[in-house]
From TrEMBL:
The lineage of its organism: Bacteria, Bacillati, Actinomycetota, Actinomycetes, Micrococcales. This is Magnesium transporter MgtE. Belongs to the SLC41A transporter family. The keyword Membrane applies. Pfam families: CBS (PF00571), MgtE (PF01769), MgtE_N (PF03448).
Length: 458
């Protein structure tokens, strides 16, 4: 079957599934038909349907999936959506799904469930699964320990590589990954790691301890974003997680690291734009939840914008004397806000990936001062020529000088604020675009009218 015909079949199945879900009644015959149709859909389409359909339809769709496919779909959903879906499912199906989840995924789900429901589901687990889930839940929400899997296959340094391979074959189904194997002593202290490829290529009588190399690792209480970035920078498939006594407690895999950074980037993107991230898919998020994610920021920015109004009121008499000055206000405030936001976005990203640290504040300020002055000079010369030719050279001089000053000021503030936020323990994205735009608007107007007063003799 060609790609186009496969796509057409999938589209037809999707339409059929949607029609069946919208049916006013769902008898046994309809459910059997729905079960047949969903088998024709790829995993991505099923996840999309469960995420975007109303809760009752999503639960109905989920019920007709076979156990293996249901687990695959469930694992792709965000924890909050998983929690909402559980409330609409039968108890036996929930128990099967919960027991098949990895301990770290189970812990994230339990965070979103009511305590009574989480406790009931916890009691339904066997002793080993309950112990591993409890261990993960014991770490703070933003710690990398919440995202590790306690299911690890450690090796002893005294094993030969042949013995190690036999050990891996016997227990390969238990851990989350076997491509990177930690090497520990009798007290589970990490000595190093060895890759499965290295084991397979060894002679068979070499000692694991001689082949193991030093491991890039993280402590279970480390911040999840910092640990995930360190993980990806090292280009690893898996990374050991230790307690403060350097004992192995779990492992983080590459999909966990990508998931953490995807969530952090989504939060930063939303907050930079003046809103809060949505906890579930946009199409299935209630309207009031979307309103709540935006209105707080709008109110904060509206209140802070009063500062700009007050500045205009202070310089109202200057505007009365030279009305032409009012024409350039949108240009100046827009230029200042854009310059500050550009600097803030660049520095926020540099902070996130470890290219800039708090102690680099003086270097960042000096760098942004030069960048802002260069940008301001280019825009200032352009403003001087255009405004001077059209409105007279005194106005041109005001515009040119103001653009130079505003760009320099905005670049410094934009580079400064994310580092200050990091220093006080706040999210740098929160202090970026929304607040910087308002600050640069008010400060830019003060600079503008001060220069106009001096040049025009107002």
């Amino acid at each position: 079957m060609t790609t186009s015909s496969t796509s057409s079949a999938s589209s037809a199945s999707l339409d059929s599934v949607l029609a069946l879900l919208r049916a006013p009644q769902h008898d046994e015959e309809l459910l059997e038909q729905l079960a047949l149709e969903v088998r024709l859909l790829p995993l991505g389409e099923l996840v999309y349907l469960v995420e975007t359909r109303p809760a009752t339809e999503a639960a109905l769709l989920f019920r007709v999936l076979d156990k293996e496919l249901a687990l695959a779909v469930f694992e792709e959903l965000p924890p909050l959506h998983q929690a909402e879906l559980i409330s609409g499912l039968r108890t036996p199906q929930v128990a099967d799904i919960i027991s098949d989840l990895d301990p770290d995924d189970r812990a994230l789900l339990f965070d979103e469930l009511p305590a009574s429901v989480a406790e009931r589901l916890m009691h339904g687990l066997d002793a080993d699964e309950r112990a591993m889930t409890t261990a993960v839940l014991g770490y703070p929400r933003h710690a990398i320990g919440r995202y590790m899997s306690p299911e690890v296959l450690p090796l002893r340094p005294t094993m030969t590589t042949g013995e190690a391979l036999e050990h891996v074959r016997a227990h390969a189904a238990e851990p989350e990954t076997i491509y990177m194997l930690p090497v520990v002593d009798g007290t589970r202290r990490l000595l190093g790691v060895i890759g499965l490829r290295r084991l397979l290529l060894s002679e068979g009588d070499e000692l694991v301890g001689d082949l193991a190399h030093e491991a890039v690792h993280a402590y279970a209480t480390d911040d999840r974003e910092d640990a995930a970035r360190r993980f990806l920078d090292a280009k690893l498939l898996a990374m050991p997680i230790l307690d403060r006594e350097n004992r192995l407690v779990g492992i983080v895999t590459i999909d966990d690291a990508f998931g953490i950074l995807e969530k952090e980037n989504a939060e930063d993107s939303a907050r930079t734009s003046g809103s809060e991230p949505l906890p579930r898919a946009y199409l299935s998020t209630p309207i009031l939840r979307i309103v709540r994610s935006r209105i707080v920021w709008l109110l904060v920015l509206a209140v802070s914008a009063i500062l700009t109004v007050q500045v205009l009121e202070i310089f109202e008499d200057r505007l009365d004397q030279v009305v032409i000055l009012a024409l350039f206000i949108p240009l100046l405030t827009g230029t200042g806000g854009n310059t500050g936001n550009q600097a803030a976005t660049t520095v926020t990203r540099a902070l996130a990936v470890g290219e800039v640290r708090v102690r680099d504040l003086p270097r960042v300020v000096w760098r942004e001062l030069r960048v802002g002055a260069t940008l301001g000079s280019a825009l200032g010369v352009l403003g001087l020529l255009i405004a001077g030719l059209i409105y007279g050279w005194p106005i041109g001089l005001v515009m040119g000088t103001t653009l130079l000053s505003v760009c320099t000021m905005a670049a410094i503030v934009g580079g400064l604020m994310p580092i200050v936020a990091k220093k006080v323990g706040a999210d740098p994205a929160v202090f970026s675009n929304p607040f910087i735009s308002t600050f640069c608007d008010a400060t830019g107007l003060i600079i503008y009218f001060t220069i106009a007063t001096a040049v025009l003799g107002l």
